């Protein structure tokens, strides 16, 4: 069956337009079609765990094929072997390889992927992309080799070519920043849906489109998985993609195969310095999204210094937004905050006024909502249409584990704040509506940015009445020293404060016990904020996945209170 006959709107002018856009000059040659494709390699690429929902073979066939000779020509790669070998999908992990794949054997932090190439070939991979080191190991691989000095650097473009550049068939929105990416993409998805578009979503919590909903492993998937998702979305008629673009993704070339129609920036604060080294390098990586190779235009929240700097240095046209004052193209006016969210008016450069309501509490969610709205404006949708969508509750979205209120007396809130900035803002949001004590339960992640641990402790001590320090994902680290670093920051902050404003600081582990005690011991007028893990359902302790969902633990404790 041909690609044409499988298009949902086969024969329509819209489908024809999509096909035309998807075939730029220099596109890969197609040969005959077979009913195989990666589908979105959704789920845990790299873990080897399959289930009916994430096995690529259960998802729509993508029906694209290309010869390795054509890929070598388009990407200027050295080819060793038969140029006529045909591939129809790309895979990074041998355990997920299926017949027709091109296996990308990348040098990694822990291993060289070439080690796994024979297994991938055994599973049906028809070609391998690798570097010179990998090629030296794979002289007898039995399949053609595409050799690049930096195979990761060509993987995004290669995966896009294999899938027929699916991102060109929809309007693409990419959101970056330290905090607020997930929330902003959920709001974009909601608003686009209300505008009559068929949106797809890719991010930390979930990848979903057209009724499919698959939990994510990474914020931004690796390029083969991402392109598989986008191709499956295009096939299903998705016409607008809202996705998160992490700094890891930019540094590791995961999104190289996409030029976004509109990119958005939320904010920047300390996180991921284990990977980026310094805040400046972290900023530089985020800023690289605002260049012509990656985006056509940008929208930047200029509430923080990083946003103001980015707006100046962006290499693509930028629209600015602020929730603080009026010094931006769009600003937030008449902001009224309540327990159930906020109402506000967005005022545009020509005096346009958009009345909006966001149901998630917190001033930061007004910033996220404003960013989402202006990104849609920047994509070319008329202000009148957006006003209509907003009037129909266009931003009535909830995000799992983001300021999720589980109970009201005591109020128990689960939030994903896992860096100092987000933790401070979450506490500040809850304080004015807490008649009793504000209790926070949180920890810091192992094997990640160690510098943020004492800072998080200090922020908690300044913002809460009771600080319960526990574990997050220790990964391979001993959790006790992680807690000690957080506690040290908390105690240091207390020492710097007036004595009568001293919070109680406790250390409770494991995490389930910390959540249980905090909820059981809270008075009805107290608020318990369980921060850091949001929607997550497994905790990585020494490489072992332990079932742990803050919402489940908190609900169990609430039920125990009721008994
Ligand atoms: C730091 C980082 O991002 N590392 C990524 C990197 O891993 P690596 O270099 O260590 O790979 P490796 O384990 O040495 O393996 C080398 C190669 O062999 C392959 N392999 C490996 C084992 C095997 O059995 N078979 C096999 O084929 C691997 O797929 C890989 O291509 O390449 C792997 C795939 O090639 C990624 O899965 C991996 O992401 C890991 C899982 C990760 O946790 N990344 C996090 C930090 C991340 O990307 N986070 C961001 C930001 C989130 C946020 O903002 O909070 C995100 O976008 O999610
Ligand atoms: N605009 C914002 N500014 C500051 N903090 C925010 C903002 N939006 C959300 N937060 C806080 O950050 C937490 C994470 O929000 P969200 O998941 O939307 O961000 P993210 O950028 O996707 O995070 P991650 O990259 O870790 O997945 C929320 O639970 C909330 O506490």
From TrEMBL:
Alphabetized UniProt keyword annotations: ATP-binding, Cell cycle, Cell division, Cell shape, Cell wall biogenesis/degradation, Cytoplasm, Ligase, Magnesium, Nucleotide-binding, Peptidoglycan synthesis
Post-translational modification remark: Carboxylation is probably crucial for Mg(2+) binding and, consequently, for the gamma-phosphate positioning of ATP.
Chain sites annotated for binding ATP: 177-183
GO MF annotations in UniProt: UDP-N-acetylmuramoylalanyl-D-glutamate-2,6-diaminopimelate ligase activity
Span list, region Disordered: 1-58
Amino-acid positions noted as binding UDP-N-acetyl-alpha-D-muramoyl-L-alanyl-D-glutamate in the UniProt annotation, renumbered to this chain: 92, 219-220, 246, 254
Every Mur ligase C-terminal domain range: 401-534
Residue intervals of the Mur ligase central domain: 175-375
Pfam families, sorted: Mur_ligase (PF01225), Mur_ligase_C (PF02875), Mur_ligase_M (PF08245)
EC number: 6.3.2.-
Enzyme class: ligase
Mur ligase N-terminal catalytic domain ranges (all copies): 95-160
Stretches assigned to coiled coil: none
Subcellular localization, as worded in the UniProt entry: Cytoplasm
Family matches, as InterPro entries: Folylpolyglutamate_synth_CS, Mur-like_cat_sf, Mur_ligase_C, Mur_ligase_C_dom_sf, Mur_ligase_cen, Mur_ligase_N, MurE/MurF_N, UDP-N-AcMur-Glu-dNH2Pim_ligase
Positions of post-translational N6-carboxylysine modification: 286
Cofactor(s) this protein requires: Mg(2+)
Pathway(s): Cell wall biogenesis; peptidoglycan biosynthesis
Its job: Catalyzes the addition of an amino acid to the nucleotide precursor UDP-N-acetylmuramoyl-L-alanyl-D-glutamate (UMAG) in the biosynthesis of bacterial cell-wall peptidoglycan.
Family, per entry: Belongs to the MurCDEF family. MurE subfamily.
Protein name per its UniProtKB record: UDP-N-acetylmuramyl-tripeptide synthetase
Native source organism of the sequence: Flavimobilis rhizosphaerae
Lineage, top ranks: Bacteria, Bacillati, Actinomycetota, Actinomycetes, Micrococcales
The encoding gene: murE
